[in-house]
Amino acid sequence: MATAGKVIKCKAAVAWEPNKPLVIEEIEVAPPQTNEVRIKIVASGLCHTDLYHLFEGMHKDGFPAVLGHEGAGIVESVGPGVIEFQPGDKVIPLFIPQCGECRFCKSPKTNQCVNAWDVGVMSDPESRFTCKGKKVLQFMGTSTFSEYTVMNQMAVAKIDPTAPLDKVCLLGCGICTGYGAAVNTAKVEPGSTCAVFGMGAVGLAAVMGCKAAGAKRIIAVDINPDKFEKAKVFGATDFVNPKDHSKPVSKVLSEMTDGGVDFSLECVGNVGVMRSALESCVRGWGVSVLVGWTDLDDFAARPIQLIAGRTWKGSLFGGFKSKDGVPQMVKKYLDKKILVDEFITHNMALDQVNDAIELMKQGKCIRTVLSISPQ
Ligand SMILES: NC(=O)c1ccc[n+]([C@@H]2O[C@H](COP(=O)([O-])OP(=O)(O)OC[C@H]3O[C@@H](n4cnc5c(N)ncnc54)[C@H](O)[C@@H]3O)[C@@H](O)[C@H]2O)c1
Ligand SMILES: [Zn+2]
Ligand SMILES: [Zn+2]
């Protein structure tokens, strides 16, 4: 490739500071160093975690940054020591690496590779980007709102060359997160009753996971009733809008299910909803999984909730070991075993990223897929 070994100047959406629109800039992307891969990003979804960083969490030291962590692309060039990837390979960048060698990667119990960047800060201080003479951070290590990005090879998954990148980009975060939270973390059982709070892409994917695991009843909970029609497509059987009830939603669910659901998944990112999700579970064996993202507040619950036999768990990236799990999910999509296209409500160009952000803020989309570089 003519660009190998050289700095690439390309377009990216830069978040200069919290709470401000992203700015389309020309950035410089350095060549990949040892064990690194430079990727031409073809398409990227917008996930609520991008909004969280920009408007809600607002870690001042996480800026300037290029957001985006739900992308897919093509390897442009590789650095020294990379043998697994070649220019032209189709790949998905991973916000959790899988080195395969650390104590966490060797355990079947978790996907928390020791090489993960500091999730507290949310932006990787190692960055190959500069803009106007300033270093620009890579949000979640990935930065898919850029025509090119550089990743360590332990955080890149090679996928089936026939996969459509403008669809499977969503397997880089939202779909794997929700689906895996149901299947891998909650371990939903056949014949069970489930409740999923929040019908964004993550919650809808959790509904899809509950259905795949054989749940017989799946209750979709959202304060935006526009989401319920979509929830049906993914397998929800019942719908509850907490705003339609004067009593707490956990009470409503408990009455609907003779004492509570077997499994609940919180896909909102709100500690009050996390508590409701736990309290919606049946005593004795109910399992509640935190999927929604927040570190603004502590959560609270009465100890009796757990003493009486409920389990409270959390799930990052659906518990998938990223490098192994993502290509398998791509295969499932190509084999028509999971839905992906149905999550996409809008397609836009990178220049329209602020419109995509606005749509999500207003609850008017499930996923917008941005086309980043021409293929
Ligand atoms: N754990 C992980 O690895 C991981 C990965 C990706 C996203 N996330 C998090 O998952 C959450 C969902 O992401 P998304 O992209 O689907 O977001 P989204 O904004 O598309 O969807 C959130 C949904 O929650 C609903 N909601 C808001 N308040 C509610 C309430 N009080 N009760 C019920 N529903 C309510 C909204 O109406 C919306 O439909 C976010 O917090 C995101 O940061 C976590
Ligand atoms: Zn995400
Ligand atoms: Zn590891």
UniProtKB/TrEMBL annotation:
> Which cofactors go with this protein?
Zn(2+)
Name under which the protein is recorded: Enoyl reductase (ER) domain-containing protein
**Gene Ontology molecular function terms on file:** alcohol dehydrogenase (NAD+) activity; S-(hydroxymethyl)glutathione dehydrogenase [NAD(P)+] activity; zinc ion binding
Which Gene Ontology CC terms are recorded? cytosol
What keywords appear on the UniProt entry?
Metal-binding, NAD, Oxidoreductase, Zinc
According to its UniProt entry, the protein's GO biological process terms are:
formaldehyde catabolic process
Family that this chain belongs to: Belongs to the zinc-containing alcohol dehydrogenase family.
User: Matching SMART domains, A to Z?
Assistant: PKS_ER
* PROSITE patterns in the record: ADH_ZINC (PS00059)
Q: Source organism lineage?
A: Eukaryota, Metazoa, Chordata, Craniata, Vertebrata
* Residue ranges annotated for the Enoyl reductase (ER) domain, each copy included: 17-370
